[in-house]
Write a structure and sequence with these properties.
alpha+beta, 11 strands, 40% helix
Length: 243
């Protein structure tokens, strides 16, 4: 595997890329994930736009975080993007990474066909390896043709020496099971099934498994309440602005 190239591209080249690519995701009406081809090879380009003077992107650019995280994950044996190029878009200071498109389907698209045991085992492997994948949700995990799982959108990944502690595990599982785009899937006790399968994969005893399930449940409820409060606050501000 060759090292990714760091290069800046002009605003004109970036705009041409946007026109000639399929927009997979947008953020605030601007393309954030593009799918395109080069020499017959399917590629993905992810874009981050400037946020402000207090953003951590100014000290640690998201594109560089993505490159480093993808490399470390692959070195640990976890399928992750193979970055071919990264850098800055001139004149607008946006950051980008381009990587070979990974084969497979997002777990979110599998719905009832999703194998909870496989997902739980994969999450336990990540945590045992000291990987805290902050963007852990069903849209950022791919089910590959060989049955393995792959990670995408890896910029917000943290690495620890040794296995993660119980607190980090419960927060990560809580984020997975409380993601708003997957709320319906995790109903009817599916989140509990996942946690118990995770406990088995991690080698927890019954007491540890029950404790983990209780704490993940608390994490889910906390995140749901926080999201409700934020929604109510935004609604109040919108109402005030409309007066």
């Amino acid at each position: 595997m060759t090292a990714p190239r760091k290069r800046s591209i002009t605003r004109a080249d970036f705009e041409r890329l946007c026109r000639e690519s399929r927009v997979v995701e947008s953020h605030r009406q601007r393309p954030s994930v593009l799918e395109h081809e080069l020499d017959g090879r399917a590629l993905i380009t992810k874009i981050w736009y400037p946020k402000g003077w207090l953003s951590s992107d100014r000290l640690r650019p998201y594109g560089l975080r993505f490159v480093r995280s993808a490399g470390r994950l692959r070195a640990l044996g976890f399928p992750a993007p193979d970055v071919t190029a990264y850098g800055t878009v001139l004149d607008c200071a946006a950051r980008y990474v381009t990587y070979a498109k990974l084969p497979g389907q997002p777990l979110r698209s599998l719905d009832a066909r999703l194998d909870l045991e496989a997902l739980a085992t994969f999450a336990a492997r990540l945590h045992e390896a000291g990987v805290y994948f902050r963007a852990l949700h069903l849209g950022n995990l791919l089910h590959q043709p060989d049955g393995s799982l792959a990670l995408i959108d890896v910029a917000a990944t943290r690495f620890r020496r040794g296995a993660l502690g119980l607190g980090q595990r419960e927060r990560n599982l809580g984020a997975l099971c409380a993601h708003p785009d997957d709320a319906e899937f995790w109903l009817e006790g599916r989140w509990s099934e996942l946690v118990m399968a995770y406990a088995r994969a991690a080698g927890f005893n019954l007491r540890q498994a029950a404790r983990l399930r209780d704490r993940v449940g608390r994490q889910i409820r906390y995140r749901q309440r926080r999201r409700t409060r934020r929604g109510a606050r935004r609604a109040r501000l919108a109402a005030l602005a409309g007066r």
